[in-house]
């Protein structure tokens, strides 16, 4: 069978050979020829076919054309043979067009697939044979040879292969001519076809989207051109295709389909590949977006259909199509929002979508709307206003990022309201959002206010310039965040200051200008935060210095233990202290082995040490900023690669940022002095250049900040001879300048002048001239322009004069001069003399001149001033009328104090003098504990002062109760001064060197007395021994004073002492009175913040300081709260519902953070505390002989029991978890406040609340029900 067929084929071939005609000069070709001969003869044939014309009769070459389509040639192993055959056959199609000699359909398919295979050679234009491949392409494109396939049944499959091939080979090396021929070859296949298959469209469309869009940009451009040129025919199919794809179901694995289909053009011809866009929702959205850029007119009718997709029930669909519309609407040249207003409104509705992902997508594209479409700013602002309060933190984060990104591209892109949104987010509860908001604002300040612009930032218009002027608040806002309690916030602010507000990358001269301008234009709160930042950084430097000092000790177990403690302390100054401790120990090991690195670190932290001197005693000036920066770089270079994955590098880099003082050096200090001098003594030229006015005072405040932290930078004679002393002698013309200079000199003291073996009797060089000290005494103390000037002058002399004999002599002269001047209200400097006396008392005068000071205080201050009213009723009423005429808004405390009479001002200073005298006695007693009479003197003085201050507060500021103390405001100032004095006495009383155990606690359960632990030095403050409960009750009324400024300033003073642990938990109870005010008032929220900060600090200390639980544990405050409320003026009847409502609010004000914001909340402990109180009576009203209680005492006890019932009811109604949780302490009641009563053992069962105030029994949770049932079973079993 096979042999007969073979013979037949051979016969046909022989017959064909006999009839084949060849062009002139062309030789016969057959299968027996060698490859080289065959190539030579095919070249001749190809050249001959190229020269043939359609006008000639070429029918004799048809047999030759048919023979070239033989499988032998089409499947030849030689690339050149196939190329020459392809070129020849292409010419055959050209010559015989439109009737090609190939009539067999299968043969035609085979030939065109052969062409497609040969077009692969176009890929490399640098190949020697590229010209022939180009000729083939040119021929096929010019003749439109592939159009023959249109009539074939399998035409779309061939076209898919052709399109896939062309898109895969086109590249940047191809000339425009080659690309144009490709387009000319492909476009007719769409234009002249009856239909375009989905598979072919997908091949084209996949070039427009990722990953092909990026991976093959030339193919993408080619596809766009094909679409543009064939859109008339392709349009209907395209719209139908998109509609089908959009309405199809989502395939979450669509990306896998794309990957499998993109590997081979053949795969796209099957049905599975045709479904890619129908199953990949993100792909079809990307396609619509790209097509809208290529053929926007065609999609005009299609786009409105997307409204239904962004309302889909499927979150993935809504998210994808919302993103698509956001891209379409936000493009720079887009006008779709005007063309489709309904679709635009529908899109804006997605900002309120139930899905956080959809809302986040909308917010993310808001930046593009703001940048590209100013007309949409109002719509976007309205949506962002709502989203900045979104419950999802990621949405809020994106709001901040979008606004900041738009602003960085140009201030014209945003408005003041959008910037206000970012400002509000700087107080977000999530640090991630606070960080982005604060850092973003700082970058705007750096970019626009400092003129350090990033690449790509656009020019700013006039409106933008006006907005830039309004960015001055940013620096204040950034520094205000330093008041946040979290360490991460403080570290963020420090980094912002060094990178954006005062960029340390600037040259020194430019940096100092920025620093000076920055400080003199920030507000007072920001300035305090800046000063605190410098102080905290100095503390960390000292901690590192301590580590370096321990490293110098001899090796051994003691050194290792000490080193570990020092490292633990230092590690707490950074985030993740456990990991930080590990890497600091690793750094210590590196320093042990590398002396050079240790020297670099010692140089960096040298500002934390005292003055350095060499062996000869010569002063070694502190290093410059450049030297410190270089040392920091050397240390960081030794830590490995500077990448985020290198935790060792990142943590030590954060440590270097805190300890490296690269903001200022000695040269910078001189520059600051020069700015101040120009403003104060010169013509203000430098001020005008910097755009500021009258900057001298704020400039000196900045220098004072550096003097407190870096006193050694003030070495040399120039700072004193050229600046400080000339400024000081202006004391009468500008007393505030003199006050600042005195503070600077006090802070510097003798540090830049001290050296080993220095004679203690010597003064700093600037104070050695014979007229300097006397001039300070005369001008700044005896005839001082202000009380503060006298205060700072005494402090300055105390710091500068180190010889005790010389100091006693100077202070003695001052005392004599004051006595000679006369301590009466008629004296022109009476008030400043009172201040000077008080400061001398705190600087050792109470030890050197006890009799003189005591006599002055008793005779002139207490009897002759505080307890004496000299003005008449007419004078007071006249001043009252004058005060009433002043506007009540924009109240200024300092101005209000200045308007007070001289008598009231002197009384205030007299109160301060007594407190300072008591403080001096306390210090005297502590330094000489063997003299018991000193303690007795101190106690008597402090108690007398407390009695006077209590009387002032109780009598409304009128100590003598004769209505001659002053006006309403004056009496308010006296009440404030008395309250502050009481706080200071209580704080001073807790300064202790060593305290013996005392029996002053009553166990809340057993009723037995219990000893406190001894308080060592700097222990947290316990319950004040001087303060009686009555003193505390009187003091607490200052927080509900009728004058707002009294409440405000008293709360600040109280918070300051509590947060520094100078006051005990009895004073913390005063904050419970915050519930007396409306929750809408700013003062209410301020007290809430104070309370929460104090509770948080004490909770943190409890974790690491178990020795003082009773003094620290916030839950131990509640017994004092109950006692305090029972003695408040607003709580007089225990059965009055209105009064009980106020008490309830006060209780919940302090209990809420204990119940809801306390990870160690113990319902059992608090409940037992209140039940224990109900078994006691008030100690302050209890009879001494255990006799029957008076009627007033009984009412007080009933008020206490009602308050306890309210507290227990609040606990039961508000608690969400009744699970029994052990408390580290037992309920204890202080014996100064409560005493046990044998008659009240069962009193904790009875309720004293009137019926309207009774609490319904709480619904038991599962855990409580389970515990209750277990207890019942136990009792039954017993």
TrEMBL record:
InterPro entries: ARM-like (IPR011989), ARM-type_fold (IPR016024), Pds5 (IPR039776). Pfam families: PDS5. It is found in: Nucleus. One of its GO terms (biological process) is mitotic sister chromatid cohesion. Residues 8-21 have a biased composition (Low complexity). Residues 1-21, 996-1022, 1249-1278 are annotated as: Disordered. Its main location: nucleus. Keywords: Cell cycle, Cell division, Mitosis, Nucleus. Residues 1249-1259 have a biased composition (Pro residues). GO terms for cellular component: chromatin; nucleus. Residues 996-1011 have a biased composition (Basic and acidic residues). Coiled coil: none annotated. This is Sister chromatid cohesion protein PDS5 B. The gene is PDS5B.
């Amino acid at each position: 069978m096979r042999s007969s067929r073979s013979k037949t084929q051979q016969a046909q071939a022989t017959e064909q050979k006999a009839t084949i005609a060849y062009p002139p000069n062309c030789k016969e070709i057959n299968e027996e020829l060698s490859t080289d001969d065959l190539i030579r003869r095919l070249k001749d044939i190809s050249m001959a076919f190229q020269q043939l014309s359609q006008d000639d009769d070429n029918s004799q070459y048809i047999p030759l054309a048919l023979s070239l389509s033989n499988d032998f040639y089409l499947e030849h192993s030689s690339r050149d043979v196939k190329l020459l055959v392809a070129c020849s056959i292409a010419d055959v199609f050209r010559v015989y067009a439109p009737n090609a000699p190939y009539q067999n359909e299968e043969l035609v398919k085979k030939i065109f697939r052969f062409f497609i295979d040969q077009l692969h050679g176009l890929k490399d234009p640098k190949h020697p044979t590229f010209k022939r491949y180009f000729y083939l392409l040119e021929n096929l494109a010019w003749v439109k040879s592939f159009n023959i396939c249109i009539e074939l049944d399998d035409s779309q499959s061939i076209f898919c292969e052709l399109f896939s091939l062309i898109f895969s080979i086109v590249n940047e090396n191809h000339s425009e001519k080659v690309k144009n021929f490709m387009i000319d070859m492909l476009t007719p296949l769409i234009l002249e076809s009856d239909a375009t298959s989905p598979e072919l469209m997908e091949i084209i469309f996949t070039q427009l989207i990722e990953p092909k869009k990026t991976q093959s940009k030339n193919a993408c451009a080619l596809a766009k051109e094909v679409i543009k040129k064939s859109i008339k025919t392709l349009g209907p199919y395209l719209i139908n295709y998109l509609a089908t794809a959009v309405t199809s179901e989502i395939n979450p694995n669509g990306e896998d389909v794309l990957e499998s289909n993109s590997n081979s053009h053949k795969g796209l011809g099957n049905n599975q590949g045709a479904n890619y866009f129908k199953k990949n929702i993100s792909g079809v959205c990307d396609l619509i977006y790209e097509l809208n850029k290529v053929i926007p007119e065609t999609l005009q009718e299609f786009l409105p259909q997307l409204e239904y997709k962004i309302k889909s029930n499927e979150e993935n669909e809504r998210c994808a199509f919302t993103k698509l519309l956001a891209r379409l609407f936000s493009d720079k040249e887009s006008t779709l929002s005007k063309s489709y207003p309904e679709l635009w409104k529908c899109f804006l509705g997605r900002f309120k979508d139930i899905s956080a992902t959809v809302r986040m997508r909308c917010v993310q594209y808001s930046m593009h709307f703001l940048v590209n479409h100013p007309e949409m700013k109002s719509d976007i602002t309205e949506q962002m206003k709502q989203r900045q309060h979104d419950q999802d933190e990621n949405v809020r984060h994106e709001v901040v990022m979008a606004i900041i990104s738009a602003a960085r591209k140009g201030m014209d892109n945003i408005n003041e309201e959008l910037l206000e949104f970012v400002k509000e987010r700087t107080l977000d509860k999530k640090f991630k959002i606070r960080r982005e908001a604060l850092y973003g604002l700082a970058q705007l300040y750096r970019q626009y206010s400092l003129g350090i612009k990033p690449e790509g930032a656009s020019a700013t218009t006039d409106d933008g310039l006006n907005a830039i002027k309004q960015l001055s608040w940013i620096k204040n806002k950034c520094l205000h965040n330093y008041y946040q309690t979290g360490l991460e916030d403080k570290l963020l602010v420090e980094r912002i200051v060094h990178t954006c507000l005062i960029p340390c990358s600037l040259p020194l001269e430019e940096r100092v200008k920025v620093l000076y301008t920055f400080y003199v234009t920030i507000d007072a709160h920001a300035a305090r935060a800046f000063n605190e930042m410098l102080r905290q950084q100095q503390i960390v430097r000292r901690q590192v210095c301590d580590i370096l000092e321990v490293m110098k000790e001899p090796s051994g177990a003691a050194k290792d233990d000490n080193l570990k403690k020092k490292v633990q302390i230092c590690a707490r100054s950074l985030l993740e202290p456990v990991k930080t401790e590990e890497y600091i120990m690793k750094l210590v090991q590196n320093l042990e082995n590398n002396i050079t690195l240790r020297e670099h670190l010692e140089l960096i932290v040298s500002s934390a040490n005292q003055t350095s001197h060499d062996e000869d005693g010569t002063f070694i000036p502190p290093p410059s900023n450049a030297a410190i920066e270089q040392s920091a770089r050397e240390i960081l270079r030794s830590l490995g690669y500077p990448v985020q994955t290198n935790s060792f590098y990142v943590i030590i880099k954060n440590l270097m940022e805190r300890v490296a003082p690269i903001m200022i050096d000695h040269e910078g200090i001189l520059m600051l002095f020069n700015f101040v001098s120009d403003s104060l003594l010169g013509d203000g030229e430098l001020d005008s250049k910097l755009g500021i006015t009258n900057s001298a005072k704020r400039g000196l405040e900045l220098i004072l900040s550096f003097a407190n932290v870096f006193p050694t930078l003030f070495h040399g004679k120039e700072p004193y001879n050229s600046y400080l002393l000339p400024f000081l002698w202006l004391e009468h013309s500008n007393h505030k300048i003199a006050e600042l200079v005195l503070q600077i000199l006090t802070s510097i003291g003798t540090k830049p002048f001290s050296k080993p073996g220095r004679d203690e009797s010597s003064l700093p060089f600037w104070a050695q001239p014979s007229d300097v000290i006397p001039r300070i005494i005369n001008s700044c103390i005896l005839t001082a322009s202000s009380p503060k000037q006298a205060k700072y002058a005494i402090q300055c002399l105390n710091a500068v004069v180190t010889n005790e004999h010389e100091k006693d002599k100077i202070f003695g002269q001052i005392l004599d001069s004051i006595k000679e001047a006369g301590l009466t209200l008629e004296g022109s400097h009476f008030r400043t003399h009172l201040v000077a006396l008080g400061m001398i008392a705190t600087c050792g005068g109470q030890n050197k001149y006890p009799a003189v000071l005591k006599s002055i205080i008793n005779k002139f201050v207490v009897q002759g001033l505080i307890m004496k009213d000299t003005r008449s009723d007419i004078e007071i009423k006249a001043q009252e009328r004058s005060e009433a005429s002043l506007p009540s808004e924009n109240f200024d405390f300092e101005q209000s104090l200045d308007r007070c009479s001289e008598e009231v001002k002197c009384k205030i200073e007299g109160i301060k003098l007594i407190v300072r005298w008591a403080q001096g006695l306390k210090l005297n007693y502590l330094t000489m504990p063997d003299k018991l009479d000193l303690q007795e003197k101190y106690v008597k003085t402090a108690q007398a002062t407390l009695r006077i201050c209590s009387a002032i507060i109780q009598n409304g500021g009128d100590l003598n109760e004769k209505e001659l103390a002053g006006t309403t405001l004056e009496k308010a100032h006296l009440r404030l001064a008395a309250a502050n004095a009481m706080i200071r006495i209580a704080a001073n009383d807790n300064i202790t060197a060593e305290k013996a155990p005392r029996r002053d606690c009553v166990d809340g359960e057993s009723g037995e007395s219990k000893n406190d632990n001894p308080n060592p030095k700097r222990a947290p403050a316990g319950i004040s021994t001087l303060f009686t409960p009555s003193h505390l009750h009187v003091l607490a009324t200052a927080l509900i004073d009728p004058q707002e400024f009294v409440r405000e300033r008293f709360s600040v003073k109280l918070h300051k002492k509590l947060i520094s642990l100078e006051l005990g938990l009895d004073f913390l109870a005063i904050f419970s009175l915050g519930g007396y005010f409306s929750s809408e008032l700013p003062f209410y929220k301020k007290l809430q913040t104070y309370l929460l900060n104090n509770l948080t600090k004490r909770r943190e200390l409890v974790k690491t300081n178990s020795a003082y639980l009773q003094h620290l544990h916030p839950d131990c405050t509640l017994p004092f709260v109950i006692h305090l409320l029972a003695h408040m003026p607003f709580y007089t009847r225990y059965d009055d519902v209105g009064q009980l409502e106020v008490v309830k609010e006060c209780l919940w004000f302090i209990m809420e953070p204990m119940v809801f914001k306390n990870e160690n909340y113990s319902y059992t402990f608090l409940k037992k505390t209140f039940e224990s109180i109900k078994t006691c009576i008030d100690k302050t009203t209890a009879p001494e002989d255990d006799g029957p209680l008076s009627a007033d005492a009984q009412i007080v006890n009933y008020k206490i029991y009602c308050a306890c019932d309210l507290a227990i009811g609040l606990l039961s109604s508000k608690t969400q978890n009744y699970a029994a949780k052990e408390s580290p302490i037992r309920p204890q009641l202080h014996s100064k406040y409560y005493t046990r009563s044998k008659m009240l053992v069962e009193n904790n069962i009875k309720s004293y609340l009137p019926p309207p105030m009774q609490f319904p029994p709480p619904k038991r949770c599962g855990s409580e029900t389970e515990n209750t049932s277990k207890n019942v079973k136990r009792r039954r079993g017993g």
